[in-house]
Amino acid sequence: MSGNVEEWCYDWFATYSSTAEPLTNPTGPATGTQRAKRGGTCTNQYAYSLIVYYRQPQNPDARGNTRGLRLAL
Questions:
Q1: Rounded distance, CA 22 to CA 34, Å?
Q2: For the chain, what are the domain ranges?
Q3: Residue 57: partners with Cβ closer than 8 Å, 6 or more residues away
Q4: What is the pLDDT of residues 15-60, one digit of tens each?
Q5: What pLDDT, in 10s, does the model give residues 59-72?
Q6: By CB count within 10 A, which of 5, 20, 25, 46 is most buried?
Q7: 66 near 5, Cβ under 8 Å?
Q8: What is the phi/psi pair of residue 66, to 5°?
């Protein structure tokens, strides 16, 4: 699924220190101003952004044709 669309995440965005212990499924802070999105698209992206764990902040009201979501139960 890499390179299809950027994936909107329910989590609020937070930066994590590279010196911190490895995180498994980090949930982010309880509140924030920007949501997390992961991965990238095959259009207008750098190769490093196509990695599934690449995370970026995005305003929750931002729209675009390169973002999607994955429904999970």
A1: 23
A2: 1-73
A3: 13, 34, 35, 36, 37
A4: 775 555 666 766 778 899 999 888 777 766 677 777 777 888 888 8
A5: 888 877 777 766 76
A6: 5
A7: yes
A8: -110, 10
CA-CA-CA-CA torsion for 12, 40, 44, 49, nearest 10 degrees? 90
Q: What angle do CA 41, 60, 2 make, to 5 degrees?
A: 20
**pTM, 2 dp:** 0.65
Nearest to 4 by CA among 62, 50, 58: 50
Pick from 61, 59, 64, 71: nearest CA to 6: 64
| CA–CA gap between residue 19 and residue 6 (Å, rounded) | 26
- The position carrying tokens 């690449």 is 54
Q: How far apart are CA 59 and CA 36, in angstroms?
A: 9
